[in-house]
Structure formats: C-alpha cells, structure tokens
Amino acid sequence: MPPNQRLVSLDAFRGFIMLLMASSGLGLAKMAQTQPDSWWWQQISYQVSHAPWQGCAFWDLIQPSFMFMVGIAVPLSVRRRKEQGQGFFGLTWHALTRAVILVLLAVLLSTGSKDAQTNWSFPNVLAQIGLGYIFLSILARLGWEYCAAAAVFILGAYWIWFFQYPLPGAGFDFAAIGASDKDLLPGFFGHWSKGLNAAADFDRWFLNRLPQAQPFIVNAGGYTTLNFVPSLATMLGGAITGNFLLTSTRSPGQKCGRLLAAAAVCLLLGTVIGIVGCPIVKRIWTPSWALFSGGWVLIMLTFFYWLVEIAGQRRLVFPLVVVGMNSIFIYVMHSLAAGWIRDQLAKHGMASFFALPWGPVIEKASVLAVLWLLCFWLYRQRAFLRL
Questions:
Q1: How far is CA 122 from its chain centroid?
Q2: Which of 18-22, 34-38, 235-239 has the lowest mean pLDDT?
Q3: CA gap 211, 51 in Å, rounded
Q4: CB-hemisphere CA count at 13 Å for 269?
Q5: What's the Cα-to-Cα distance from 158 to each of 146, 243, 338, 377, rounded to whole Å?
Q6: CA distances (Å), 303 to each of 64, 295, 296, in order?
Q7: Do residues 225 and 213 make contact, with C-beta atoms less than 8 angstroms apart?
Q8: Which pLDDT does position 300 carry in this prediction?
Q9: How confident is the model at residue 48 (pLDDT cuts 50, 70, 90)?
Q10: Which comes out higher in pLDDT, residue 335 or 4?
Q11: Rounded to 5, what percent of the chain is helix, strand, coil?
Q12: Is 54 helix (H, G, I), strand (E, B) or coil?
C-alpha cells in the first residue's frame, strides 16, 4: 500500500460498527416485548441484545469489531509516526499516554450522575482497550510473528488459569457473592460460570482496594476487569491483519481470499474449543469467544474491503466513513448525550411520534440521526477527535 494511501474500507467498517453501537438496537428489543408470541420478533430481539451468557448474538460482535479495528490501526499509526521521526521511546510514550487517557475516560463515562463518587470500574470497552494498549503497541512494532505468538500464549495461559481455579465446594454460599447455584455451568465448564470464575474473584479482591461507594461484590452482567487480557489477543489479531494489509504485495482479490481463509480457521477453532475446551462467552472473553468472534469480524471486514477496494463503492459507504473517522467522538457523545438529545427532540415536537406503536424505533433512529449529523459537520470542518 502506498505510504499516504488511506484504506477507506477500514473507515467504513469502523463507521458501521459505531453506528450499530449508537443505534441502541433501534429500539427493536423493546418493540419485541409487545410481541411476545411472535417467533420472528423474539429472534430479532435476541440478535440486537447481548447473549445472557453462553452463545453469540449479532450485537455481541460490536465490541470485538471495535477492538479488532484498534489493532488494525496500530501498524498504520506506527509507520506514520516513524516517518515523522519518532523512535522507540517516542512511540512508547504516545502509547502510554493514550492508554491512560482511555482508561480515565472510561471511568468518567462509567460514573453516573447519581454516583456519589468516582466509580472505579473497568469493563467499559475504552478501559479494556486502554489497559491492553501499551502491550499492543510494543508487540505490533516487533512484527506479526510476535503478535501471533503472544496471542496464542495469552489465550492458552488464560485458559489454564481459569481451568485450575477451584470450583465452589459443598455448602458454598452463592448469595454472598451475588450468584446462585443455577449460575454454575455443568462439568468442567463450571470454571467459566457467571460470577464464579477466577477473574470475578480477582475483581472482588482488586476493586475493593480502590475507593468505592460500597463494597464491590459482582458485576451484574458478569463482566470483569481482566477481560482486557484475552481481548488483547483480539487486538493482536487486528494488528496482524493491519500489517498484512499494509505490507502484502498481493492483489486485493488475493487479500480477500487470505482474510476469508483466516476467518474460516478462527471460526472452526472457536467452535471446536467451545465444545471441548471452554464455553463461548463474550462477557468474560473466553479463548473460544476470542477465536469465534475474530472469525466473524474478519468476514465482515473482508466484505467491506471487497466492497470498497475492489468494487469501488466509495460513494455508497460515505455515510459510514463520516462516522468511522470520528469513532471516539460518537462513542463519547452517545454515552454522555443520547438521553439529552432524546429529551430535546421530544420537547421540540417529536414527543407525539415517540408515543406511536413504532415509537421506540423512531426515538432511537432520531437520536442516531442527530449524532450522524454532528459527525458530518465535523467531517466537513475536517475536525477529527483523536487520542
């Protein structure tokens, strides 16, 4: 790829992912609640919601896609900064600064208006990226072989740590840690049960050493701080892909073939490990999930790469590119201002539309439209929020 050429397909895919996130499922899950007897509505609801624990819904693929794209961007960023004369220490300082900002921003977004003090919690995707970013930056500079070796080691070691961690014994007080015996998965899969796993116990030790309004017991969704360790493997997969797209002399068609082949391998390995090794659980980023989700991300990325770089449909994906070039902005705005935007729209004439049978869809689509228009205005001003 020529030094100054930007892969528009990457911006389009990133924009697609961020629009999905900011859409809040277009209110379809809420619509499905009014149709409890409709099989189709329940299927739609499942796909725009997170799987309760095991399994994978379409909505679960948003976070791994975002993190994969972070990994892809690193080799491109490193090359650009090296061309500007930055050395090892300059690159490392930039990565460390970015990591700290991401973690602090995540803590800020996790602290609600009703919280009496800072909510030191790290399952937020920005915190997960920040906690692993310095390692990602260093490994990506060493080359794809180091990234691949590190990803294999991380997933293998993480599996061993969970597997050897003791299961609850007879008379275990499940209620004391906000769980129940129904959360315990059968057989040795029990090591990856909600709230009853090694990473959940780590959080009960670690988070209670930080200032908390009340003692931490369990994350309601089962998410853990240490998810950043296996999700680093997802970002490393992105770095390997970014390095491939950056340095390979193969034709775009051949690149698509290689990406699809890698996707098939990841899906196969993830499925097999999900059957015999550990369950596919996004909420604790099991090794099987890292591989399985990585396969689906590669399929979606390949589609966008084909659509833009081979089929040449740049005008078609322009609305996505507008968002993809300001992904941090729309993430922060959605987190902080989505409710305010909805209230202002209701106040200024949209309340009657929000009350219609399809009101949840109209409401979420209206908020999404405002967020897109803000991104479009920034795009026209050539203003891009970067860390």
A1: 13
A2: 34-38
A3: 31
A4: 17
A5: 18, 25, 36, 44
A6: 17, 13, 11
A7: no
A8: 97
A9: very high
A10: 335
A11: 70, 0, 30
A12: strand
CB 294 within 8 A of CB 152: no
Report how far residue 97's alpha carbon sits from residue 102's, in angstroms, rounded to the nearest whole number: 9
User: Could you report the per-residue pLDDT of 151-160, keeping only the tens digit for each?
Assistant: 999 999 999 9
C-alpha separations of 219 from 117, 124, 215, 338 in Å: 18, 12, 12, 24
Question: Residue 324: exposed, middle, or buried by beta-carbon count in 10 A (0-12, 13-18, 19+)?
Answer: buried
Q: Which neighbouring-strand residues pair with 281?
A: 54
User: What's the burial of 119, exposed, middle or buried (CB within 10 Å: 0-12/13-18/19+)?
Assistant: middle
pLDDT tens, position by position, 212-238: 888 999 999 999 999 999 999 999 999
Q: What is the DSSP letter of 61?
A: G
Is 289 within 8 Å of 280 (Cβ atoms)?
Answer: yes
Distances from the Cα of 189 to the Cα of 222, 256, 277, 332, angstroms: 15, 36, 8, 36
Determine the distance from the C-alpha atom of residue 63 to the mean position of all C-alpha atoms in its chain, rounded to a whole number.
2
Residue type, 37: D
| C-alpha 197: how far from chain center | 21
Distance CA 244, CA 258 (A): 10
At residue 1, the pLDDT reads 52
User: Over the stretch 312-322, which tens digit does the pLDDT of each residue have?
Assistant: 999 999 999 99
Predicted TM-score (pTM) of the model is 0.92
Q: Which two tokens stand for residue 175?
A: 């209620």
What is the C-alpha separation between 376 and 379, in angstroms, rounded?
Answer: 5
